[in-house]
Amino acid sequence: MAEAARQKRTGAATAARSDARAKAGQKGGRKRGTVNKELIMTIASAMFRERGYDRTSLDDIATGLSITKPSLYYHFASKEEILLECISRGYILFQQKIADRDDVRLSGRERVRIFVEAYVDLLQDTVLSMIVADERVMSEAGKAKSRNYKRMLNRDLLERLEVGRKDGSLAFDDARIVAFGIFGMINWMTHWQSAALQIAPETVSKQFVSLILDGIGTPARRT
Predict the structure, then answer these.
(1) How many angstroms separate the CA atoms of 121 and 51, rounded?
(2) Who's near 81: CB < 8 A, 6+ residues apart?
């Protein structure tokens, strides 16, 4: 299962590009009807992640899909619209992952574990990881939408942390600092080198959960 997950994750963008080019083998490029939003987001997000959003043009995306720019405009009005759709899709799927496992009767510690595991899994996907895209490259309207999703994620984690503090399963001084630390650690995954991304999501989440909930220090020895 872990090996299959690794292959699926690391080969998604490459497979999408190959599929785009294979299906567009006829002279004149791909017909508009053979491309869809999901394929566009797969190709575009891979380019955003590899070379940077600001260094990726609509021409680059169209070329990667073997279609013309007008065909791309049929699905998305702008490059930012592609990015925001990836972010929106990421948040929706994250909520679905949480809903499948969450239960308000669980301890705060367990609910934080569920959040971390789902979030790590989310950021392993090229399209969905756009949820942590750099806001500085967005328009003011785009920034507002992106920040709204991030606020909702932050609020969700803070609520889980506070449940843990109240039920005694977690102990900390400031939930905001803890939340910032958790997001900072996990979000940095999107900057890992390709070799690091070969690690199965469940292995990464298990290590992160252990680090967050148990720390890395060993009990001090008594002298």
Answers:
(1) 22
(2) none
Please answer whether residues 201 and 124 qualify as being in contact, where contact means their C-beta atoms are separated by less than 8 angstroms. yes
CA atoms within 13 A on the CB side of 191: 8
Asked if 16 and 111 sit in the same domain, the reply is: no
pLDDT digits (tens, 9 = 90+) for 171-195: 999 999 999 999 999 998 887 765 5
Please, are residues 59 and 11 in contact by the beta-carbon 8 Å criterion?
A: no
Does some domain include residue 220? no
Contact 95, 152 (CB under 8 A): no
Could you tell me which residues come within 8 angstroms of residue 178 by beta carbon, excluding any fewer than 6 positions away?
161, 172
Domain boundary among 54, 79, 104: 79
Give the residue among 96, 36, 42 at the shortest CA–CA distance from 64.
Answer: 42
C-alpha span between 129 and 46 (Å, rounded): 10
Domain span including residue 21: 12-79
Assigned domain for 101 exists = yes
Question: Tokens 């963008």 belong to which residue?
Answer: 13
Domain CATH code at residue 42: 1.10.10.60
H or E element at residue 71: helix 69-73
pLDDT along the chain (223 residues), means of 10: 45 48 45 77 90 90 92 93 93 92 94 94 87 89 94 96 96 95 90 69 87 81 60
Q: Residue 2 domain-assigned?
A: no
Q: For residue 5, give Cα distances in angstroms to 2, 41, 89, 97, 131.
A: 5, 20, 20, 16, 20
